[in-house]
Structures are given as C-alpha cells and as structure tokens.
Amino acid sequence: MTTYREVFADGEFRALFAANAAVVAGMTMQMLALSALVYASTGSPLLAALAYLGGYLPLAIGALTLLSLADRVRPRAFLAAWDGVRALAAITFAVGVLPTWAILAIVMAMGLLEAVAGAVRNALIVDILSTGGFVLGRSTFNVSVGAMQIIGFAVGGTLIAAIGPHPALFAGAAFMVVSAVLTRFGLRRRAPRVAGRAGLRETWHGTRVLWRDPAIRALLLALWLPNGIIVGAEAMYVPYAGSSAGILFIAAALGMLAGDVVVGRWVPPGRLDRLITPLQTLLAVPYLIFVFHPGTWLAAGAVAVASFGFAAALGLQRRLLDAMPEELRGQGLGLDSSGRMTLQAIGAFAVGSLAEAFGPAAAMTGAAVGSLLIVALLWRPLRRTGIVAFGHPAPSAVS
C-alpha cells in the first residue's frame, strides 16, 4: 500500500481509525481537564504533570505482567469493553466528589490494562493492512492523533476557560462511548492470535525473547527515551503558560501532524532510515529557546517545529516490526507503546521535579539538553545493530 486512498478503502480500517480518533480526543480532553483541576486545587507543577501523564507510569507494570493477553484476547470485545470502562472513569472524575489522591490513584490503576489495549490496537493495524501497509497505516493513526489532539485541546480548553474542567470531563466520556460503538459494530470478530492461557510466565518469556535481541533492544530504547523526555517538557505547558497552555498544546499537535503526513506519505523507507537521528535531534533543539522565557506565540512556534521530529518513530517502528517474531507481534508492539508511555510519565515526573526547584522554563530547557545527550548515546548502538542513523546502512542491516 502506497497511498492513503488504498488504506482507507478497507472499511474495517476506517472503523478502527475513527474509534482511535475518538479515544484520542476523549483522552486529550480528560488529561487537560485533570491537569487544570489538580493544578488549580494544589498549585503544584509536579502533581499537575502527574495528572496529565500519571496513567502512563503503571504501563511498565502492565507490560511486564499482563502483556501476553494482547495476543490471547478477542480484539473487538476487549477494546469495546475497555472504552466503556474509560468512559465510566471520566464520568466519575467529572462528578467532582473525589479528592486529588483518589483521582491520581484511579488514573494510575487504569494504566495497567492500557498497556494491553494499546498492544491490541496496534496489532490490529497489521492484521487489517498486512505488514506492507503498516507504516502508512501507522502514519494515518499518528496524523489522527495530531488532529484529534487539536480538537481535544481546543474543545477542552474552551470548556475549561468558560465553565471549568468538569464539563470537559463529561465531553471526554462521550468520545469514549463513541469509540466503543464504532469498535463493536465496525470491526469483525477475530479469534485470539495465540491459543492458551495468558499470565506472568508467558509475558516474561515473550519479553525476554524480545529484549535479548540486540536490534530490538536498540530500537525500543530509541523509541522510548528521547520522546519520553520531550513529552515530559510538554507536561509543563500548563505551569508555563497558564490559561494560554492550549495554544502550546495545539502547536505541538500541529507539528506532529505535519511530520507524520510529510514523512509517512512522501519519504521512501531507505531515506527515512537515514533521517531517524536528524529527526530526533530536531525534536529537542527548539526547546532550548525556553532558557530565554519566550512569549506564548514564540514558544508555540518552537514546539511546533520540535514536534515534527516525532516522525522519527515511523522509521523505528518499521524496523521493529521487521525484527519481531510474528507470534510475538502483539506483545512486541505493546512493549513499544507501553514503554514509550511509561518513559513519558517518568519524563513528566523528572521534568516536573526540576520545575518545582527551578521553574518550568528551566526544566523544559534541561529536558532538551537531556534528550540531545540520549540521542547522541544511542547513535552507536543503532549503527552497530545495522539500523541506519546518519550515513549509509551498515552491512548487517535488518531487512
């Protein structure tokens, strides 16, 4: 598959795409509303960051204990039920009777199964489009993430500014219900990919098989670490810009959308391999401007340019899919997504901790420096395993 028209010709993919878009919009509104709610009640940048990305912290636990479920559940039933659970949680938050600690506890508890849900959804892209259509299909999902984040931030930010965060949480719940309906009636019934029971032993075995492969390990680290630190900087938008934070969130989403459209549609796979390190460098460099405490619109321009660099993940994910055994596809893709989100939560915690001591602008600048150092450290492992960064492919490149 080489065009978006070919990808969207498949009705099942259209339903999965629309359901994922609804989930992203709903989760974006929920995360923004919870961050604003917690910051207003506590005044703590750290707790605001945890409210925004705290659900990602338990993903590592879910990935290490439950991820074998991803290849052993019926995808349609599991995803529809999980959307229903998320809608119920958002309604509970919106009622406004829970203290801050209870909100954070529920958000983190739900992160355990979110690792499995992400794995099931990513594996469905391959099941529907086949391996050859994965990069373009993944690109369309990333584009929808950018577009629906813009909608989620715009609608959520407007609701929060006009009438408070609680209506934004109700709106987020409505999007979750839409996703559940689209999933239930738009996808066909599928049997589990692997027969047998799922459990801790099966999860650990699959994880060991994946992690012991040098190419897979290098790819996972490259997908997790630079992105995680920069998303931690994004968690500082509310403390940095206050009521104008929505502008920064929208700018970041627009930059990510542009990167996925340009790179996913028009950059050939061989050239994309050579752009991985430059794109990851671009992801961090514009954040260095925060050392000068730029105004909202200059800051928005910087984060839009930086977010174009998230497109590096397309090349890394293509290599990861090629390197994984087919029987561990769901678990491998889930390990990627849950690891990235966990590192994003850790990044938010680390950057939020810096902000407590030095302020949001200094913390965001420090995040940029840290991300650049990690990109430099990962360059050799990627080259050594045959994954292209700068220059030409190494002789042992993964096919």
From TrEMBL:
Example of a GO cellular component annotation carried by this entry: plasma membrane
Transmembrane residue ranges: 15-40, 46-67, 88-113, 119-136, 143-163, 169-187, 218-238, 244-263, 298-316, 361-379
Database matches in SUPFAM superfamilies: MFS general substrate transporter
Membrane topology: Multi-pass membrane protein
Keyword annotations from UniProtKB, A to Z: Cell membrane, Membrane, Transmembrane, Transmembrane helix
Compartments where located: Cell membrane
CDD domains cross-referenced by the UniProt entry: MFS_MefA_like (cd06173)
Database matches in InterPro entries: MFS, MFS_trans_sf
Record carries keyword Membrane: yes
UniProt GO molecular function: transmembrane transporter activity
This protein's name: Membrane protein
Native organism: Catellatospora citrea
